[in-house]
Amino acid sequence: MSLKLKIRLSIALMLVLLLGLGGYTFFSLQRLEGGARGIQRANFRSVEYGEQMLRALEALQDRPTAQPPLQQLRRALTREAANITEPGELELVDTLTQQLADYQRLVDDRAPDAAQVAQLHQLRAATHRMMQLNARSFNRQTDQAAATARGARRTVLVLLLLSTVVGLSLVVRLPRAVLRPLRRLRADVEDVASPGPATQVSIAKNDEVGAVALALNRAFGYMQDQRSVTRAALATERSRLESLIEHLDEGLLLLDPDRTVLLANPVARELLGREAAALVGRRAEDLSQETELLNALFRPLLAQEGAQAGTTPAPVTLTFTRPDGETAYYQLTLNHIVSRNRETGRTEFVGHILSLRNVSDFKKLDEVKSNYLATISHELKTPLASIKLSLMLLQDERTEPEERQRIADGIGDETQRLLGMVGQLLAVSRLDAGAEIQFDVQPITLAQVVNYAIDTVRPQVEDKELRLRLELPASLPAARADVEKTTWVLINLLANAIRYSPRGADLCVRADQHAAHELTISVQDCGPGIAPEHHERIFQRFSEVPNTTGHKGGSGLGLSISREFIEAQGGRLWVVSEPAQGSHFRFTLPVAG
C-alpha cells in the first residue's frame, strides 16, 4: 500500500468518525428537542388549560352566575378540546363539555345554589382528572426523554472514546509508517555513500519510498558509471602526465611544502646518480648533506626562509660530468607551486619544483662565439697591422717607385679582405636580428654568374697554379635568382676550394640541368675532403672542422650565409665529400618560368 493511500485512508477514517459522532449527536439532540416540544404541546399546555379552568371554577364558586369566569372556563375548555393527545382525554373533555352545558342550563334556569355548587364540584373533579392524566403522561415522556438522553450520552461517549483511540493510533502509527521507510532509505543511502561494499538502496515496498529508492539506484548507477569514466580519465591523464614527466629531456624534482622529495624523473636520477628509492620520501635538508652536488642542487631552496612568501630565486648553472667524461651544463630553476582552493576561495602553497635544463649547447655556442670573436679580432688585427706597416713604407722617401706600387697593391688586397670580413659580419648580424635581406630575383644566365666569379678569383687560381676546368653547356636555360647573391655564393665556394686545394691541383666548375625545373652549379676540388659526420656541421655558424692538413680555416660564416642565400631563392646547397678525396659543393636554382 502506498504512503499516499495510507494517509488518505487515515484522514478518511478520522473524518468518518468525526462525521459519525457529529451526526449522531446532532440527530440525538434533534430528537430530544422534538420530544420536548411534543411534551410541551401535548401535556404542558393541557395542564395549563386545566389550571385556567380551575381558576375560573374558583371564581364561579363565589359568584356562580358571573359571566367572565364562565367565559374563561368555556374558552379554556375549547382550547383543551383542540389539544387532545392522550388516550381517555377525549372522554374527559366530552364529560367536561356536558357538565359545563348542564351548569349553564342550571344557571339559565335559576336553579338553587346548592345544585349549581354541586355541578361546579363535578366540573372541578373532571378537570383534576384531565390534569392528572396529562401530568402522568408528562412524567412518563420526561422519563423517556431522560432515558433517551442517557443512551445518547453513552453512545456519544463510546464514539468519542473510539475516535480518541483511533486518533491516537493514527498519531502514533501514521508518522511511523511514513518515517520508518524514510529512515531506512536514509540509512541505505549513507551505506551507499560510505566506502563500504553497498552499491544500491534496498527496495522493501512498492510505494513512494520505493519509487524514490528506485530513482536513487538509477542515479547511483549513473554516478558509478560517471565515476568509472572519471577514474579512467584520471588514470589516463595520470599515465599521460607520468609519461610526459618520465620522457622530459629536463631533470625534474617535485617536493612537498615540507621539502620532502615526492618525484624525481629519470633525467634527474641519472644526473644525480641515484635511484628513485634513494630520493623519494627524503627531505632536502638530509639529502643536501650527502654530496656536494646535492648540496648545490638544494642550496637555492634551503637558502630561502619562509618559502611560501618568498620570491623565485634567479636560475643558477650546475656542472655535471657524464659517464663518458663529457662535461654537461644544466640550468637549475626553482619554482614554488600554488593552487587555488575552490572551497575556501584562497590560494594555497602546495610545494616546490626543481628543474634542470640542459644548456650545454648554449654554453658551447657561447664558447664558440667567444673563440670566434678572438679569431676575428686576430684576423682583423693582422691586415690592419699590415696596412699600417705598408703606409709607413709609403711615407718613407727612400722607397723605390716599383716598391711603392707593390705596397699599394698589397694595401688594396688587405683592404678587400677586410671588406669581405666586414660584409660577412654585417650579413650574419642582419640574419640573426631577423631583418629580411632584399633579393632582386629575375631571370639570369649562369654563364654571366660563373664568368664573373671566375674573373674575381682568377688571380688566386694563377697564384696557386691550379688547373681550372669550366663545364658550362651553351644550351642551359635561364635561372630565376639574384645575380649579386648567387655570384657571392659561387665566389665563396671557389675561395674555399682554392684555399684547401694543393698547388697545381685540378679545380672544376660545372653547370647542368638534371630536372625540368632545376639547374645545378657545382665546385669540385682536390683538397683534403670532409668526413661525412661533418657535412652538416660546416654549414652551421662559427663551426670549425678539425683537420690535419695544416690549412687555416675561415670565420665559419661563409657557408652558413651561402646556404641561407640559396634557400631563400628556392634552391639547395650541400656537399659530397670523403676524407682525402676532395670536396664537391653543389647548389641548385629554379629554372626561370
From TrEMBL:
The reply to whether ATP-binding figures as a keyword in the UniProt entry is yes
User: Does the keyword Transmembrane feature in the UniProt annotation?
Assistant: yes
Membrane topology qualifier: Multi-pass membrane protein
Protein EC: 2.7.13.3
Q: Give GO MF terms, alphabetically.
A: ATP binding
**Pfam families in the record:** HATPase_c (PF02518), HisKA (PF00512), PAS (PF00989)
The record places domain Histidine kinase at: 375-593
Q: Which stretches make up the HAMP domain?
A: 176-228
Protein name, as recorded = histidine kinase
Question: What is the organism field in this record?
Answer: Hymenobacter canadensis
